[in-house]
Amino acid sequence: MAAAGRRAAAAMLALAATLVATLVGGTAVAQTAVAPPGAVPAETTAAAAPATAGIALGNTGLSLGITPSVSSDYLFRGISQTRNNWAVQGTFDLAHESGVYVGAFITNAKFLASPYNNTRQELDILAGYRFTLADINFDIGYVGYLYPGQTKPEGTQLNEYHELVLRANHTIGIVKLSGTFAWSPNHFGRSGNGFYLEGGADVTLPLEVTAFGRLGYQWIERNPRFGTPDYLWYGVGIQREIVLGVTAAVGWYGTNISKRECAPVVDRADGGQRICEGRVLFTLSRVF
User: Fold this and answer.
1) CA 113/CA 265 separation, integer angstroms
2) What pLDDT was estimated at residue 233?
3) If 66 and its partner were Cys, which of 9, 16, 121, 288 is the partner (CB 3.0–4.6 Å)?
4) pLDDT for the residue numbered 239
5) Mind giving me the DSSP string for 104-121?
6) 34 φ, ψ (degrees, to nearest 5)
7) Residue-range domains of the chain with CATH
8) Residue 121, Cα to own-chain centre: how many angstroms?
9) H-run or E-run covering 30
10) What averages of pLDDT result for each successive group of 10 residues across the chain (288 residues)?
């Protein structure tokens, strides 16, 4: 897996170099009028926030996108990050007309561990470059998953980790196809190389309704440290703007992880947890 990680990193760097060379050649177009990168919206709820150019900041070429939301759970790649509780979240996206952006995603979070895990919030730092090439929208970025205030009991690991992410989407008529590849050299809880692949589709329906579906797979090098085996997750649902720019989304999400294999904790959840089970997820969000 270490060799595989080096190969993945080399591939990402080679792809970035190729794209930069293409940009220098003048065949790509910077992209700024897109939804916030929100790990976080797309991979958390599978329902991407509506596209927006953000709030223009004078003549600086910068725009600021803000997306507050409230959800019946915080699901990341199909697994609850709040132990099946509600989440209040915000995504901030500062983008330049060149395609370069920085941003942040903040949410409450909660985990079970032995002897304890005192995480109460998650702060993700986002940075990258968006552009369009051959009618395909690309986003090459970095995400740092941080957990401010978490302390580390002896013999345990901090949650925080980092990922390189490549996203792409292409619209054909009423269908938008999307894909994501992510790699972490040391995934959540110091669980080693993590590789993630996701595909999805959004379909525009009558009455301004959008149906969406996502299918993803997470590979982890040190499964016992992460808490689950490599796994598949899925999500299907619908979303629509309901009033004053507020979008409501509802969907069904699940994984192929059994309860016994779902993050068991000695003396606290020996038989596994219910954070990997299928569930209905409801979200309200507003893009500014």
Assistant:
1) 6
2) 98
3) 288
4) 98
5) EEEEE-----SS-----E
6) -135, 170
7) 2-286 (2.40.160.40)
8) 16
9) strand 29-30
10) 49 45 48 39 41 79 97 98 97 97 98 91 98 97 97 87 98 98 96 97 98 98 96 98 96 98 93 97 96
Quote the CA–CA distance of 163 and 188 in Å, as a whole number.
Answer: 10
Asked if the peptide bond before residue 115 counts as cis, ω within 30 degrees of 0, the response is: yes
pTM, full prediction: 0.84
What was the pLDDT predicted at 3?
Answer: 53
* Nearest partner of 283 among 15, 37, 46, judged by Cα: 46
Is residue 167 within 8 A of residue 141, CB to CB? The reply is yes
pLDDT at 28: 57
Chain centre to alpha carbon of residue 50: 15
> Can you give the pLDDT at residue 263?
95
Tokens (6 digits) for 193: 């190389």
Chain-centroid distance of CA 182 in Å reads: 10
163's CB contacts (< 8 A; 6+ apart) are: 142, 143, 145, 182, 183, 184, 194, 196
> Rounded distance, CA 283 to CA 288, Å?
16
Q: Which residue shows structure tokens 């619209």? A: 171
Contact status, residue 242 vs residue 248, Cβ threshold 8 Å: yes
